[in-house]
Amino acid sequence: MSGLVMPALDEKVMARRDEIIAALRAIVPNNGLGEGVVDSTNAMRVFESDALTAYRQLPLVVVLPETVEQVSQVLRYCYENSIRVVPRGAGTSLSGGSLPLGDAVLLVMSRFNRILQVDYPNRVAVVQPGVTNLGITKAVEHEGFYYAPDPSSQIACSIGGNVAENSGGVHCLKYGLTANNVLGLEVVLISGEVLRIGGKHLDSEAYDMLGLMTGSEGLLGVVTEVTVRILQKPEVARAVLIGFPSSEQAGVCVAEIIGAGIIPGGMEMMDRPAIKAAEDFVKVGYPLDVEALLIVELDGPPVEVDYLIEMVEAIAQRNGSTTCQLSRSEEERNAFWAGRKAAFPAVGRISPDYLCMDGTIPRKALPEVLAGMREMSVRHGLRVANVFHAGDGNLHPLILYDANIPGELQAAEEFGADILRLCVKVGGVLTGEHGVGVEKRDLMPEMFNEVDLDHQMRVKCAFDEKHLLNPGKVFPQLRRCAELGRMHVHRGALAFPDLPRF
């Protein structure tokens, strides 16, 4: 697995594999849907990686529960027997968040795939975590509603995984990330305890446990039910394709649109390599003679949309735009977005392998970061195609490489690390929506000091003191919870000596 270091295998657990499998089969037996426990090497191959395919590892065993009670019993058994557990949804994680461990149970939630309730008066839907992101919209669109967060993988990614990574999408600028659209959760802790957090009401009382769980990457608990906000479709939605002779000009245009007080439903940007790859793949009419392409969508009442489109076009012209194409129908608007949403698979057609990075920067830093990436591309000897959630500064550079050429994977990883370091340097953060997982784990000290990481670890310890849930992810150094209570004495001087000690 390249240079990635994961927790050492627990040989005692490995020696008890047959016993563990038998115990899990008693909890999750076979049924009409298939095996409840998968333990053969060939059958487990489909679970050995997620969308960060550079890293692969067979799990100890795969378990596919169907009920909350089964999830609770599996986790309780693993807790009592000190067996690690890796939760997994659809396996679309781009940060290695659901990468299995050789001594861990892989808990696959794909059979939790039912929509339990749609409550139109309260504008919510209650769904199981294995329901796909797009599946929620499909279930309510006949009544004129939809679910706003829309990652590019929405046709496949599960809502439970969206909660784990706090996923966004092309429309998150105006309508928010998963955290802004989830109202309630049912979560099973590693001890087997079932918690209900939030509900159909807008705000939960006391601590913001909902905010804590959303984006926790499977480190705190396993989600078994999600209550999401559904929205009425806007009266009108129109998209504008705007081409620029340079990425810097497009970046300035983005900043000026937001600075003018315009909040588009979505605002995406692609550079020349990504534009060409997407157009060759989906053929929706993207201009091929530009260096950067903005897709700006305005939605709302027709009069407001018309007015905002005029403002956006004027701002684009001031910044040197060379093309401007307005969608003339709903089909054409969807086609504009189809090209953007197909950008990742499209790039896969022009390179044997690629790493999809994920960092977020202040919008004003976009020209500086783009220039920095061009310099890095030359230095590392690898091409890069760029796709951005331009409105909120969430970058998705696609680093192209060939894993069959010795050294190219390592070069791609170093290139990606340099991009993320630059994001932090300009005032940004390591991730926008893909999570930390294993991909960015060892870069956490670039953004957080030891005190920061210790406090994050204390939260982990409050939920999982044995570190059994998704170990090896997010935290750059494994530490026992007891170590966090240590007292630091510097040169014989006790910190804050006037405070009472217990």
UniProtKB/TrEMBL annotation:
<dbReference type="Pfam" id="PF01565">
    <property type="entry name" value="FAD_binding_4"/>
</dbReference>
<dbReference type="GO" id="GO:0071949">
    <property type="term" value="F:FAD binding"/>
</dbReference>
<dbReference type="InterPro" id="IPR016166">
    <property type="entry name" value="FAD-bd_PCMH"/>
</dbReference>
<dbReference type="InterPro" id="IPR004113">
    <property type="entry name" value="FAD-bd_oxidored_4_C"/>
</dbReference>
<dbReference type="InterPro" id="IPR016164">
    <property type="entry name" value="FAD-linked_Oxase-like_C"/>
</dbReference>
<dbReference type="InterPro" id="IPR036318">
    <property type="entry name" value="FAD-bd_PCMH-like_sf"/>
</dbReference>
<keyword id="KW-0285">Flavoprotein</keyword>
<dbReference type="InterPro" id="IPR006094">
    <property type="entry name" value="Oxid_FAD_bind_N"/>
</dbReference>
<feature type="domain" description="FAD-binding PCMH-type">
    <location>
        <begin position="55"/>
        <end position="233"/>
    </location>
</feature>
<protein>
    <submittedName>
        <fullName>Glycolate oxidase</fullName>
        <ecNumber>1.1.3.15</ecNumber>
    </submittedName>
</protein>
<dbReference type="InterPro" id="IPR016169">
    <property type="entry name" value="FAD-bd_PCMH_sub2"/>
</dbReference>
<dbReference type="GO" id="GO:0003973">
    <property type="term" value="F:(S)-2-hydroxy-acid oxidase activity"/>
</dbReference>
<dbReference type="InterPro" id="IPR016171">
    <property type="entry name" value="Vanillyl_alc_oxidase_C-sub2"/>
</dbReference>
<keyword id="KW-0274">FAD</keyword>
<keyword id="KW-0560">Oxidoreductase</keyword>
<dbReference type="InterPro" id="IPR051914">
    <property type="entry name" value="FAD-linked_OxidoTrans_Type4"/>
</dbReference>
<dbReference type="Pfam" id="PF02913">
    <property type="entry name" value="FAD-oxidase_C"/>
</dbReference>
